[in-house]
Structure formats: C-alpha cells, structure tokens
Amino acid sequence: MQNPPTAPEAFAELVAAFPAHLAEDVRAVAARIPSPTYASMEPFSVEVCGERVAIPYRIHLPEPPGAPERSLTGTQRAILHCLYTRNSDGRVRQRHLEQVLGSTEPWVVPFVLQLVGEYVLEILEAVRGGLPGLADPASAHRRLYGDFIARNPRFFGRTERRVVSYWACYYRRRYPEFAAYPGSLLVKSLRRAAADQPH
C-alpha cells in the first residue's frame, strides 16, 4: 500500500480534478477536510470547459468532522461534495452525490457520470431519480450531460462497458434482461442526450 501523499501533493491532486478557475476554491475546501489516509487511485482524464482535468478514481479521505460546509461558499460546497463522490466508501459516495445531482455546473458532470459506471445499484437509482430531465429535450441537464458525453466519447464508451460488466457480474439474476437494468436505462437516456448535441 502506498504512503499517504504529502499535503502539497494532496492539494495538487485535488486542484487538478477541476478547471483552473476553481483552483482557489478547491484549496479553500482542501484546507477544511482531513488529509488522505493513503494515496489515491489512478485518476481518469476528461475534458471540462475546454480543459483537461484529472479526477482521482478513488480518494481515501475521511469525512470531515462537524459541518465544515457552513463556512464554505455554494461553489466550495459543491466541490467538497464532488470530491467525496470519489470516496472509497459507497455510502459516502451516494450521500455526497445526492447533494450535487441538481447542479448545472459542467465540472460536476464527470463526478456524477463516473458513478454510472460503478457497481452500487442504489447509486445508479439515485442518479436516475436525480436527473429526471434527461428525458426532456428542453432540459438544462439533458443539454449539459449530452454536451459532456459528446466531448468525451471514450470516457462514455468505457462507462457503458462497465455498466454491462457489472450487470453481468452482479445483477443478471435480479434483472435477467439487460434492457430492464437501471444502469441500462440510464445509459440509454444519456446516449440520447448526447445524440441531440450539435457536432
């Protein structure tokens, strides 16, 4: 197991997960949360707002004691919740995911979509329930998620393959037909949202 990163390394890793204009806000959040218990897993790279960001696959980060979000701005609270969607505990991921599902900030999107390609069924259902506008061609979420997917087709392709793999491995008995699996329904809605976007 790798040693925990030093404070400067941890700060740099968190800052790299967001567009550059948010760097000071990310640092403000990082100053209010515990240090990672050990090194994060390899990041995944996506384009957000015309920039490449590197989001850790998992962050081994204890939740902060008390309620540090009270001293944060709205943007900083969203950053904190996004970071904890990468936590190693599925319950923590879901709890923080639910705080950002309503956001229309483009930098929130990859944190949500990464969870679509993971194995926790309750999280898939939370995403489906939290993004009902994906079915509405006029909704801001449909445009936002569709645009992100259109700009990151390899990332979304990998997400789709993971959805199929986790269904086959864990959920095939419960959902004998892949088309009825919540992950399949969600991916179908996301694919349609991407198809709507001008190329």
What's this, in brief?
This protein is mainly alpha-helical and 199 residues long. It has 2 domains: 1-103, no CATH class; 117-199, no CATH class. It has helices at 7-15, 23-30, 74-84, 90-100, 109-116, 121-130, 140-151, 153-171, 182-195; strands spanning 43-48, 51-56.
Describe the structure.
The longest helix has 19 residues, at 153-171. The model is unreliable at 4-8 (pLDDT under 50). By secondary structure, the protein is mainly α. Helix 1 (7-15) crosses helix 2, helix 3 (74-84) runs antiparallel to helix 4 (90-100) and helix 7 crosses helix 9. The chain has a two-stranded antiparallel ribbon. The protein folds into two domains: 1-103, no CATH class; 117-199, no CATH class. A hairpin with a 2-residue loop joins strand 1 (43-48) and strand 2 (51-56). It has helices at residues 7-15, 23-30, 74-84, 90-100, 109-116, 121-130, 140-151, 153-171, 182-195, and strands spanning 43-48, 51-56.
Question: Which labels suit this protein?
Answer:
199 residues, 2 domains, globular, single chain, mainly alpha
* Major sheet: arrangement of strands: 1-2
Summed up, the domain count is: 2
Beta-strand residue percentage: 5-15%
The first-to-last residue Cα distance is: 44 Å
Structural class: mainly alpha
Characterize the main sheet. Answer: 2 strands, antiparallel
Number of DSSP helical runs: 9
Rounded Rg: 17 Å
Which residues form runs of ≥5 with pLDDT under 50? Answer: 4-8
> How many distinct beta strands?
2
Summarize the amount of helix as a percent range: 40-55%
**Average pLDDT metric:** 89
Structural shape: globular
> What kind of oligomer do you see?
single chain
Which sequence of SSEs, written as H and E, runs from N to C?
HHEEHHHHHHH
